[in-house]
Structure formats: C-alpha cells, structure tokens
Fold this protein.
Amino acid sequence: MPSIPAISVEDLPPGTVKEVLISGRTYAVCNTQGAYYAVSGDCPHRNGPLGHGAVHGYQLVCPWHLWEFDVRTGVSEFAPDCPIATYPVTVDTAGIVHIELP
C-alpha cells in the first residue's frame, strides 16, 4: 500500500478531526486518545462530511445527522451493517501524518 502524506500534526491538535482530499477522495483524519486515525470522509447516511464532524473518545460524529463511528473499526451502532473504511496511518519524523491507501 502506498503511504500518502495527508496532514501535518501541527494542523491536527488532540481531540480534533480534519478533512483531507487525496486524489479526488475525502478522508477524515483524527487525533484522539493519543493516536492518529484515518477513515473514509463520507458518512454512509447521506454522505455527510465526516472530516467536519467531531471526535469524542474513539467516536467520530457526523455533523449532519449525528451518526457515530468508531475510528478504530469504522463500525457504527446506528448501522452496524455499513461501516466506513479505516486506513492505517504513520507519522514521519517531520511530523506529517501519512495514510496507507490501497
């Protein structure tokens, strides 16, 4: 999997989520519970922009209809049969979060 630079850790303080655009697709990158996570940027319920939501612990909350997704697994209690994609991340020595994409 290629590792794609996504966002600087300086732009992603603890307890935040940001939307990033890579090759025409959106991803939500979170800094929560002392780690970084990357998930699909689109909520499966009406394509809400997850990168504009909020994180509470490991839960990423969609700003449109408040569906919550676990950033570690992509699973939502609201719709366990339609999880969002999750992606491995790494942080390089320059402080850039990279998303490993298929």
